[in-house]
Amino acid sequence: MAILIGSFLGLMLIGLPVAMAMAAASLLYILITGSVPDVIVAQRMIAGVESFPLLAVPFFILAGNLMNIAGITGRIYNFAVALVGWMRGGLGQVNIIGSVVFSGMSGTAIADAAGLGTIEIKAMRDHGYSPEFAVGVTAASATLGPIFPPSLPFVIYGMMANVSIGSLFLAGVVPGVVMVLLMMATVAFIARRNNWGGDVLFSWKKLGSAGFEIVVVLAFPMLVWMLTKFGLSLNIAVGCALAALLLADWIFDFSAVMALMAPVILIGGMTMGWFTPTEAAMAAVIWALFLGLVRYRSMTLKGLAKATFDTVETTASVLFIVTAASIFAWLLTTSQAAQMLADWILSFTQNKWVFLLLANLLILIVGCFIDTTAAITILVPILLPIVLKLGIDPIHFGLVMVLNLMIGLLHPPLGMVLFVLARIAKLSVERTTVAILPWLVPLFIALIIITYIPQISLWLPHMIHGVR
Questions:
Q1: Residue 37 domain flag
Q2: In terms of residue numbers, what domain contains 273?
């Protein structure tokens, strides 16, 4: 354990990238101990990425990239302005609602920050908001991306913990709503303290239009249910409902109905058994292509090529991290290091609530230094046996782990959202860090609520999937 973990930490301290540090530490352990044949290393590398759920990774990344180049982010922003732009701190509220909608297709915090963040920060600065406030609310709202379904971190966690990814997706809905309410309350508090008003005039017409779009989206599953009651098969009922939706969208030229439909299609499709979470990622890409090429006709071949190459680059880096982390995690397990670490943690307490407190502290610290994918791959083999032994639901723990790691994305030294927003806002990393600090308050409140009230995470999967 000393060789494996010590060399990993040492290599990170001298500035080696996380994936390279894990791979080098694993190789050093193998060379010194001579306990693992070389062929096993190659087999574990292949096994680390030879996973059906991991096929969702490139497709969710591609869906987010396609949304950005298809102009869908602009439509989401305009919809959010009509819905909440009149409230106190209007564009701050818009920022949060826009992230909720965008998260229904992207599944990553970085895509949210880079996609909507570019539009939102510029608009907020143009309306007189300080760059710090604009960056802070954008960073906080970006954490919603992996909490609301779909979610790339949930895919990785579900694969590592061997739990239902569909249940994880459902478990993120209510906690996501809790986070949204806390963030909107924070914006309202700051706006009242600074005597800010709304950024657009209140208009019943615009509010009614945005509300009507929400009603149209919510009416879709109801229409499907009604058609099945008239004797139509489920597939035919869905086809008829989609045709009716497309006709309504063509007639009324909705701002964001088709983008709002993405989470409905994905979650509804998984709930009704049409496709697995991995196939849902492919459905997200097909939907984004349909919107960009057919409905809005805003996607060019050049943009499509750029989105594809960006996806290849991002996917390659993610899978390299998974490969390196899978070897490292396997060695942690086979060398009994994971068991020793688990026993050491259990020596402090056998109380699950105290353990959750310690786990939160550990994951928060790890999330500040290690990439989300690598952190999940390393921590799950160590913490999951304790979670199961103490009777903690692994789906609930998955929510706790992912939210901790999302908060870690806002911190130096390796917070990717921090660096993305610093570049977009043209602020120093130091100023960006200070701007984000007040927004950790609602995030930590949400973390405490989600950690110690498991029903918030488990109610929806229990109701829909009957998980007990």
A1: no
A2: 54-468
The DSSP secondary-structure symbol of 54 reads G
25 is a domain residue: no
Is residue 281 included in any domain, yes or no?
yes
Half-sphere CA count of 288, side-chain side, radius 13 A:
31
Helix locations, 301-369, DSSP H? 301-334, 337-346, 352-367
Cα angle vertex 54, ends 48, 57, to 5°?
Answer: 130
Choose among 108, 107, 183: nearest CA to 150. 107
**C-alpha to C-alpha distance for 153 and 155, rounded to whole angstroms:** 5
How far is residue 338 from each of residues 2, 24, 343, measured CA to CA in Å?
Answer: 12, 19, 9
Distance CA 98, CA 112 (A): 9
Q: How many domains does the chain have?
A: 1
For residue 294, the 8-state DSSP code is: I
pLDDT score at 468: 40
Q: Give every CB contact of residue 374 below 8 A, 6+ residues apart in sequence.
A: 18, 19, 22, 321, 324, 325
Nearest-angstrom CA–CA distance, 347 and 322: 30
- Over residues 379-408, the pLDDT tens digits come to 888 899 899 989 999 999 999 999 999 888
In a domain, 220, yes or no: yes
Find out whether 39 and 144 touch, Cβ atoms under 8 Å: no
pTM of the shown model = 0.79
